[in-house]
Amino acid sequence: MYYTALASVVMAALLLPSAPVLNAQERRAGAGPHALIQRAVQAMGGEQALRGITNTTTEFNNASFALGQEETPQSPARATLVSGRIMIDWKGDRRVQIQELRPVAAPMIRQRQVMVGDIGMNENDGRPAAAAAAQILGTKRGMRLQPERILLVALDNPASVTSLRPREWRGTLMDGARFAHGADTVSLYFDRMSGLLTVGESVVDDPVLGDRRNVVWYTRWQDAGAGVKLPRQLDSEANGRLQSHSVVTSATANSVLDEALFAIPDSISSRAQRASSTPVPLAVQLVELAPNVWRAEGGTHHSLIIQQPARLVVIEAPQTAARSSAVLDTLRSRFPGKPVATLVNTHHHWDHSGGVRTYMAAGIPVVTHLRNAAFIRGLASARRSISPDALSRRPRIPEVRTLTDSMLLGEGDSRVVIYTIPTTHAEGVLAAYVPASRILFASDVLTPGATLVPSQSAEMVAMARARGLTVDRFAGGHGTVASWADVERAAGGARP
To answer: Radius of gyration (Cα) for the chain, nearest Å?
Structure first.
């Protein structure tokens, strides 16, 4: 679920070169924030050369680490190896990224990601689809944050630049300047000997980490033609953990671009979502699967809702606090006077736990696997100074209930049983089974769609048989709802 997102990590940082060394007296006399920006621009080739860049082409090798997708909360993140090329047409407001992704536990993927103006396209193994508006916004922001762009904007807006105290990075003291420019606000740190921008730092609100400190390193500068230099190594960190390591093997400015690579077919562009800074309201729809059982749908992630005589049980709080709030608001409207009494977290992966904190803030107990208990409690204690929430204002110790095998919630026809699943996806994964309707729900282990993956289907079938479950339908935390007969047929095609 994260291949498209990780492919954009490489783009969010790219350009810089060498300036005269200031002695201590010169530094004290002229190292104000605007002087730091001017010196960095000069080190990159000078203002005229930077303003003369019409396009850049970079070829790269990258290792991206799937933070939040580990085997357990404390396990090392898996790496995906990426090789590709990025072409940015600054004059035409266009960008294309062509790459091969080699996940360690999945087949290779060939991608082409195209952005033209306010629309975009993702092409995976030759299958094109319109890019989401949020992806286009992220791509545009990544382009604005590239060093030669943000430094020129800072140069043109000196009132937006303020001094930072010198700070030690990797054992070297660097001078800093803060560029406050709306969503693009970033702290910039410069090497004292070369004058080059070396570190970009920003702190943003993260659904899981709370205050997330993003750091990008720009190192190993080399000439790229057109009188400018580009960095040949880019390293991205999140709260001190390496997220992406990129080595640029070739970099050129103002080369001839292949127009065909920027092409978006009319069939895609005619229905593409246009990027807009106006937030799109979250819509949650309750789709009835059986009496007293609904799936809360909307977007890529879903939750299962079970109505019991005096309460509601929610399975899964994915993505963000905003999505959890939308689900809770929908349930209050649909079931007035019937509270959510329990939330079940299927596993620790960040896209499936980003909304848990909202339930804890409302005093709703959380059920999770014992392996994930410390992680879930940590969600409640994460510091949130960027976007304080209810739990920041009124801290409370969350009620976390754990299991290592199974747990019964409720009784009679409305009961739901929570089971552990042995799966290669992660450790500590839970599934929910509603006996009265013979519905089995799980996230990520199996994602129903036009086809069912045999190996994933085999894991679900093995779990159901081991537990002696009679299943009619499988509802995914992603994708659609599949008949169990289809799941069993797909499992029959799995390799031993």
So the answer is: 25
